[in-house]
Amino acid sequence: MDERILIVDDEKDMLVLLKRIFKEKTNHIVETECNPLKVVELLRKHQFNIIITDLKMPKMDGIAILDMVKNIQPSAIVVIMTAYATIETAIEATRKGAFDYISKPFRKERILMTIDKAVKWQKLTQENIALKKSLQYKKESPPIIGSSPATLSIIKMIAQVAKSTATILISGESGTGKELAARAIHYHSDRKDKPFITINCTAMPEQIMESELFGHVKGSFTGAWKDKRGIVQEADQGTLFLDEIGDLNMVMQAKLLRLLQEGEYKPVGGLTTKQADIRFVVATNQDLKKLIEAKQFREDLYYRLNVINLHMPPLRDRKEDIPTLAHHFLKKFNSLNDKKISAIAPEAISALMSKSWPGNIRELENCIERGAILCQSDTINISDILPQEPVAHTSPIFDHSIYTLPFKEAKEIIIKTFHNKYINWILQQNNGNISRAAEQAELQRQYLHRLIKEENINTEIFK
Ligand SMILES: Nc1ncnc2c1ncn2[C@@H]1O[C@H](COP(=O)(O)OP(=O)(O)OP(=O)(O)O)[C@@H](O)[C@H]1O
Ligand SMILES: [Mg+2]
Q: What are phi and psi of 453, to 5 degrees?
């Protein structure tokens, strides 16, 4: 981690010493300033992550520096250095928003540890801000597009279950619209004016996850320098969307179960239990039953979560939606890229329909985005969306010279050419995924695998 640190002290020796310590032990970029009056200018010019300042200096003291930082760079962290005699003031500074104080003289481990703690703390706060932003995300849900029987039944099911408070487990491959469905459930429920909060169970390390979810009390661990509200508290009265629930660790599974059953939780380091009224929607692209067998997921939690199951089918099973979705995304990217593309060529639509879309609707969305950017005319053509498409499938497999050969030999050549072209095509359609290609071609996987070997085709090039 290389952070940008500013050290302010009127004693030049101290600046030299600190700079040397950081240089030896860290990759942080350190700037020093012995004239506190110049700090304002520095703060206006550069963004710092951490400011270490002496407390007692002539002309301007550390508290004034702290105030200045809070004004100019509120996200920066301030650490105060102080002589024993002024510890009271340093404590006062932490009340005013300094992260910590270090009393002089100090050992180098002490300063390194404090800065390490500060860096970790800052990362946590940033994650929190990002989460809060996602909280304020649009006050309505984007539409669920499609008119295939599968999509219509999803829309119908959402309308039926949204008003209840039952927990919903949304399953489906990546990119099938699980998060979109979760939002739709929230915005069709009576909780729509309350928060909708998303938390991804994979993204966070175990300890951070607990404090993010349930909050913590001041002093409960290094870096917990003040009480913090958890997501559960933020989501009170609203909906909490737990994404990738299969990745939640066993300890957190037990705590979540308690919250689901009793509506109760305890902040990290807290003594009293708190109550929360939350509607849970959870999602997974893993097979939770398999995780239960492997003892990685609690069976009782599974049944508590799976009150209603909403399965999002893969796009290859609702291909009728492709044209509508493609036009929907075209409209979206027209407006995002300030373009006026009016149509998608029919050959491009049929090419889109013939792909198997392992990345599902997200992959289709990305493909149209690329098309909208590359398109030079008012129509998206096949070359805009599938530029790597071989023309081979439209050219004949053989020419008339084949008839000059004996029947058996001609047949062998044609079959071999056909195998080669067909396999290349089907693999390309499925991004080199042999199982999916076999499924689309209605072939046994082992058989397709043998053909790939015979034709000496490198599947990696399609990935
Ligand atoms: N039926 C649909 N209509 C319109 N847009 C859709 C539809 N389904 C999915 N999308 C869009 O496709 C993208 C992927 O959807 P989403 O993020 O909900 O999928 P996901 O199942 O949560 O994926 P992952 O498992 O990878 O997190 C989003 O931009 C979403 O808005
Ligand atoms: Mg998702």
A: -65, -45
Taking a 5 Å cut-off on Cβ, the residues next to ion ligand 2 are 179
For 126, residues 6+ apart whose C-beta sits below 8 A from its C-beta are 75
Q: What is the pLDDT of residues 196-225, one digit of tens each?
A: 999 988 866 777 788 889 999 888 776 677
Query: Which pLDDT value is given to residue 407?
Result: 85
Asked if 344 and 330 touch (Cβ cutoff 8 Å), the reply is yes
Count CA within 13 A, CB hemisphere, residue 98: 28
* Ligand 1 atom at minimum distance from 180 CA: 18
What are the sequence ranges of the domains in the chain? 4-125, 149-313, 316-389, 393-462
Quick check: CB of 148 below 6 Å from ligand 1? no
Ligand in closest contact with the CA of 145: 1
Q: Which of 252, 266, 3, 215 is nearest to 117 (CA)?
A: 3
What is the architecture, at CATH level 2, of domain 4-125?
3-Layer(aba) Sandwich (3.40)
Model confidence pTM above 0.70:
no
Can you say whether the dihedral through the CA atoms of 150, 154, 160, 164 is positive or negative? positive
d(CA 213, CA 201) in angstroms, rounded, equals 10
